[in-house]
C-alpha cells in the first residue's frame, strides 16, 4: 500500500523538481547481509555517486563499542579482503566470519578537489542476535525537539531486553521485557547508539541488538542550523532532508536529488557473498521492482 502511495506521489511530482541544497561527498553504504556477523559472506560496500565517483574511501568504526559484559575487541576493523567494482562505483570489504564483524561501521569519502567529506554508517548484527529493530530500520531519524520512540523485537529467543545507550558510556537500564522505550528530546543526542542485551543470556557473545539515532539540527521540513531558514525539498522513498545541506539523504538504492530515481538492490548473488547490485527502472502506477530480475512487476 505504501509503495502504491509513493508511486502516485512520484507521478505527480516527478516533473519540475529542482536540485536544491549545499555540498557534501555523495555516497551511500550498502550492507547486503545486515544480520550476518559470524557467518561467511558478510560485506560492506561504499558506493560513490556523481560527482564523487572517482574519489577514495576509507572504512572504519566511528567509536569504541564497549557494551558492559559483552566481548570486547569490537574496536578494530576486522581483517578481510577488499575489492573494487568500477561498474558500480563501489568498494567492498568482505569481512571474516567472526563476531568482530558485529557493530557500527562507516565509510568516509573525501573529494580532494572540493575538500568536502562525509561519513555514512551501517550496522551489522550477529546472525544470532537476541533482538532487532521492530520496524527493521537500524537507523532512526528524528527532528530537533522530537521525542524518540525506539522498539525492538525478539530474535533467537531473546526475552529480557535491557537497553544501553553506548554514546558517552551512559547506560539505560530499564525494566526487563520492555521492548519499547521512549526518550524525550532532552535525553537523546545525534549519533546515539542504543544497544539491547538480553538480561537472561550470556553477554560475552555480542548477540545484542542495535539502533542508531540521528537527531537533525532543525525541526521537520527545515535545514541550515542554527537558524534553520532553509526549506527542505521533499524526499521520497524514506529519504531524509540533510539538516546541513538541504539535500535528501537517500536510503541505499535511491538516488539524489529526491530519492526518486532508481533502486539499487541486492540481487540474490549477494547471498553467496559477492557484491552484485542492479539499478531498477522506476516503476509507475504501483509497479514494484523485482529484486531478482530488476523488472517492474506491474499491477493488474
Ligand atoms: C589482522 O591481521 C593482523 C596480521 O595478521 C593481526 O595482527 C591482527 O590482529 C588482525 N586483526 C584482527 C582484528 O583480527
Ligand atoms: C558509475 O560511474 C559512471 C561514470 O563513470 C556513471 O555513468 C554510472 O552511472 C555510475 N554507476 C552507478 C551504479 O552509480
Ligand atoms: C515529549 O515527551 C514529553 C514527556 O512525555 C511530553 O511532555 C512532550 O509533550 C513530548 N514532546 C513532543 C514533541 O511530543
Ligand atoms: C529457542 O528455544 C527453543 C526451545 O527452547 C530451542 O529449541 C531453540 O534451539 C532456541 N533457538 C535458539 C536460536 O537459541
UniProtKB/TrEMBL annotation:
Keyword Signal applies: yes
Domain EGF-like, residue spans: 248-259
Record's protein name: EGF-like domain-containing protein
Oxidoreductase is among the record's keywords: no
Signal peptide: 1-22
InterPro entries on file: EGF, Ig-like_fold, MEGF/SIB
Naturally occurring in which organism (per UniProt): Patiria miniata
Keyword set, alphabetical order: Signal
Amino acid at each position: 500500500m505504501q509503495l502504491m502511495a509513493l508511486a502516485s506521489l512520484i507521478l505527480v511530482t516527478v516533473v519540475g523538481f529542482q536540485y536544491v541544497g549545499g555540498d557534501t561527498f555523495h555516497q551511500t553504504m550498502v550492507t547486503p547481509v545486515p544480520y550476518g556477523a559470524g557467518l561467511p559472506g558478510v560485506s560492506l560496500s561504499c558506493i560513490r555517486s556523481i560527482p564523487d565517483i572517482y574519489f577514495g574511501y576509507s572504512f572504519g568504526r566511528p567509536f569504541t563499542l564497549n557494551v558492559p559484559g559483552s566481548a570486547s575487541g569490537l574496536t578494530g576493523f576486522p581483517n578481510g579482503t577488499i575489492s573494487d567494482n568500477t561498474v558500480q562505483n563501489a568498494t567492498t570489504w568482505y569481512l571474516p566470519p567472526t563476531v568482530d564483524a558485529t557493530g557500527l561501521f562507516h565509510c568516509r569519502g573525501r573529494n580532494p578537489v572540493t575538500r568536502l567529506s562525509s561519513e555514512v554508517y551501517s550496522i551489522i548484527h550477529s546472525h544470532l542476535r537476541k533482538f532487532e529493530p521492530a520496524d527493521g530500520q537500524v537507523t532512526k531519524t528524528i527532528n530537533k525537539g522530537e521525542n524518540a520512540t525506539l522498539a525492538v523485537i525478539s530474535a533467537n529467543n531473546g526475552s529480557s531486553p535491557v537497553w544501553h545507550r553506548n554514546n558517552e558510556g551512559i547506560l539505560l537500564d530499564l525494566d526487563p521485557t520492555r521492548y519499547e522505550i521512549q526518550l524525550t528530546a532532552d535525553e537523546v543526542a545525534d549519533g546515539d547508539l542504543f544497544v539491547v542485551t538480553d538480561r537472561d543470556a550470556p553477554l560475552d557473545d555480542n548477540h545484542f541488538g542495535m539502533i542508531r539515532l540521528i537527531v537533525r539540527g532543525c525541526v521537520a521540513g527545515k535545514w541550515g542550523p542554527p537558524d534553520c531558514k532553509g526549506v527542505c525539498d521533499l524526499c521520497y522513498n524514506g529519504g531524509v532532508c540533510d539538516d546541513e545541506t538541504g539535500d535528501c539523504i537517500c536510503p541505499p538504492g535511491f538516488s539524489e536529488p529526491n530519492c526518486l530515481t532508481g533502486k539499487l538492490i541486492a540481487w540474490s548473488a549477494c547471498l553467496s557473498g559477492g557484491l552484485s547490485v542492479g539499478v531498477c527502472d522506476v516503476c509507475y502506477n504501483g509497479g514494484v521492482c523485482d529484486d531478482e530480475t530488476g523488472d517492474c512487476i506491474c499491477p493488474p
